């Protein structure tokens, strides 16, 4: 689903090759491959199943072996990391793919929906070596080649259905690389020694802060040290855009994983979220975007997202109802796409996405925009598609997130949603005194989260104690609902252990039948108006010999009902959303570590889901 390409002229790119590959490491999927073609039309093709580092060592080895034998002036190269969609995780399914005569090599990000028909139509002419949709495109390019790669790709693209960005090298003309995009992201940058192309803003932002972001249906022709962009055969003049704030690639320091590091970054991320948006001295929300928005005639909010971002919106829904008195509907983006859209002009459609590239979210936004409704993006990656498509936006300022499972960004999103709801509330019926109280509390939030992080050794111990269980229940009430869903998702995705989030109220309507000493229950029970009812639900589980791990506040008065507990700093119910989420991330992380999982790169998952 993701690839990066660099084009280099008159430079020995041996060391750069491996360096660039490492920039993709954080997006590791199932396999990786690259092809370099140099002036004499020599090719250097390498593929490896597993991490990018497996490919990097193969490349290193090859370079070492062939040292001094040739000049290694590569003209061009394309590289790709694959998240398997069509066909298993094998070397033959790994990109780059090639045409029948091995003249055209191609890498592709996306899905070609009509590949089966295309494959069939070419069956008599070509033998296929892979199960991928991409190989079919390589064959089609050769089949339709009219002596000019640019016009051939234009014609080929007319035959393809659905989203893609792809880049092609013609071994006969290695001085050119042509790439085209429809929906999947693609950016291009002219550096000192060549032109670089990438489908990942974070990877290229390690090299530059300003690049050109291709629009849908645009084609880029890279030639020597120049590039030209075309749309429908016509040349398009476009300057590189200054993307502004870009995140630098993270260092691991002493943490055992990026996921752990990112959880420990939460206090400072919250400071970023509040900085420039809250005036703590005057105790007011102070942000132009929010002020303009809060003045608009908005009668309803509709929040759309997927994955962990969808749990952030769920919390946001409570905030909007509670603090702004605005009805708020929350929808999973894929369900939004599957449903019938009835546009409401006075509704603000809010899209949450860490990457800003998630296919379902992006496509939902297109539908909303096409009906002339107002869109608002809360996105982490600056310059991403969703950020650029939004009518107005705020960044979640979480910095680059390397762990595939989102953590610090979810909390940043929850923070942004809270500020939005308070800003809306300030123009509606929310009392100034209540806003001031919440802001006073928010000032202490980073420290409270820090306190949670200091509990990491205790949380680790408990995770280890619970690591032999095969199932978990995670119980919630009210605002803790999304927290429980997110905690349960983290257990599943990081440790591959079955976990189910369930309403504490609903438990006795069926799932209680599952409770046994071998099926422990995690419960979020901060102090607040639902505290006592949840204690009754816990008693019901205890009566069935169920074990209870409580995420509770320090001053909980019924500690004896829990088998074990993680005590969180005393806060209001509102702030307990942030502290409980952070603690649940640490629990899931250490559970996974105890089970020897690769926490930064859980099996089968991808950081940025750019296909539907
Ligand atoms: C993937 C990631 C999740 C993330 C989800 C939504 O599944 O593994 O951690 O929450 O995508 O991504 P987005 O970038 O839209 O927030």
What does this structure look like?
- The protein has 612 residues and is an alpha/beta fold.
- It folds into 3 domains: 2-242, Glutamine Phosphoribosylpyrophosphate, subunit 1, domain 1 (4-Layer Sandwich), CATH 3.60.20.10; 248-454, Glucose-6-phosphate isomerase like protein, domain 1 (Rossmann fold, 3-Layer(aba) Sandwich), CATH 3.40.50.10490; 455-612, Glucose-6-phosphate isomerase like protein, domain 1 (Rossmann fold).
- Helix content is 37%, strand content 24%.
- The protein is built from 19 helices and 27 strands.
- The protein has an 8-stranded antiparallel beta sheet with strand order 3-2-4-1-10-9-11-15. Strands 5-6-7-8-12-13-14 form a 7-stranded antiparallel beta sheet, covered by helices on one side. The protein has a 5-stranded parallel beta sheet with strand order 19-18-20-21-22, with helices on both faces.
- The mean pLDDT is 89.
- The structure holds 6-O-phosphono-alpha-D-glucopyranose.
- 6-O-phosphono-alpha-D-glucopyranose binds at residues 306-309, 353-355, 358, 361, 404-406, 605, 607-609.
What are the key terms here?
alpha/beta; Glutamine Phosphoribosylpyrophosphate, subunit 1, domain 1; Rossmann fold; 3 domains; eight-stranded antiparallel β-sheet; 27 strands; binds 6-O-phosphono-alpha-D-glucopyranose
């Amino acid at each position: 689903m993701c690839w990066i390409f660099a084009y280099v002229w008159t430079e020995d790119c041996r060391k750069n090759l491996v360096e660039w590959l490492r920039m993709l490491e954080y997006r590791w999927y199932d396999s990786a491959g690259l092809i370099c073609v140099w002036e004499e039309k020599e090719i250097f093709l390498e593929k490896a199943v597993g991490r990018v580092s497996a490919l990097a060592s193969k490349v290193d080895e090859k370079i070492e072996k062939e040292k001094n034998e040739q000049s290694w002036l590569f003209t061009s190269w394309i590289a790709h990391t694959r998240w398997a969609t069509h066909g298993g995780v094998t070397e033959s399914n790994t990109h780059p793919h090639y045409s029948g005569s091995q003249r055209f090599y191609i890498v592709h990000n996306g899905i070609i929906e009509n590949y089966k028909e295309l494959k069939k139509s070419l069956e008599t002419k070509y033998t296929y070596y892979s199960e991928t949709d991409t190989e079919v495109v390589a064959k089609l390019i050769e089949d339709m080649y009219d002596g000019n790669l640019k016009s051939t790709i234009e014609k080929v693209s007319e035959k393809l259905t659905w989203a893609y960005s792809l880049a092609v090298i013609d071994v006969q003309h290695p001085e050119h690389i042509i790439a085209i995009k429809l929906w999947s992201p693609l950016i291009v940058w002219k550096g000192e020694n060549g032109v670089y192309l990438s489908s990942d803003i974070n990877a290229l932002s390690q090299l530059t802060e300003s690049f050109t972001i291709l629009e849908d249906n645009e084609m880029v022709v890279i030639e020597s040290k120049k590039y030209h962009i075309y749309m429908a055969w016509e040349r398009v003049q476009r300057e590189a855009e200054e993307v502004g704030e870009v995140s630098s690639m993270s260092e691991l320091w002493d943490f055992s994983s990026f996921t752990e590091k990112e959880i420990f970054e939460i206090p400072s991320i919250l400071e970023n979220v509040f900085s420039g948006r809250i005036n703590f001295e005057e105790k007011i929300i102070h942000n132009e975007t929010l002020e303009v928005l809060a003045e608009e005639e908005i009668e309803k909010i509709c929040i759309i997202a997927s994955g962990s971002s969808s749990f952030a919106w769920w919390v946001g829904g409570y905030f909007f109802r509670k603090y702004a008195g605005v009805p708020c509907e929350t929808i999973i983006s894929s369900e939004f796409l599957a449903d019938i859209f009835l546009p409401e002009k006075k509704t603000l459609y809010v899209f949450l996405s860490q990457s800003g590239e998630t296919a379902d979210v992006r496509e939902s936004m297109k539908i909303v925009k096409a009906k002339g409704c107002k869109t608002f993006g809360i996105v982490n990656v600056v310059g991403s598609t969703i950020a650029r498509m939004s009518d107005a936006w705020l960044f979640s300022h979480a910095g680059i997130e390397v762990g595939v499972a989102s953590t610090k960004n979810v909390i940043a999103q929850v923070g942004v949603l809270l500020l939005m709801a308070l800003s809306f509330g300030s123009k509606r019926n929310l009392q100034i005194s209540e806003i001031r109280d919440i802001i006073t509390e928010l000032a202490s939030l980073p420290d409270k989260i820090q306190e949670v992080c200091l509990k990491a050794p205790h949380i680790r111990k408990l995770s280890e104690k619970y690591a032999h269980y095969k199932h978990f229940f995670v119980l919630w009430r009210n605002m803790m609902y999304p927290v429980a869903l997110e905690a349960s998702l983290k257990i599943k995705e990081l440790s591959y252990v079955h976990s189910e989030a369930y309403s504490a109220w609903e438990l006795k309507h069926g799932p209680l039948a599952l409770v046994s000493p071998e099926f422990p229950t995690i419960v979020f029970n901060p102090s607040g108006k639902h505290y006592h009812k949840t204690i009754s639900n816990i008693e019901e589980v205890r009566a069935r010999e169920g074990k209870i791990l409580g995420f509770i506040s320090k001053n909980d008065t019924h500690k004896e009902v829990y088998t074990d507990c993680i005590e969180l700093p005393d806060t209001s119910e509102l702030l307990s959303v942030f502290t409980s989420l952070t603690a649940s991330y640490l629990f899931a992380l250490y559970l996974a570590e105890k089970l020897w999982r690769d926490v930064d790169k859980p099996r089968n998952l991808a950081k940025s889901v750019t296909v539907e």
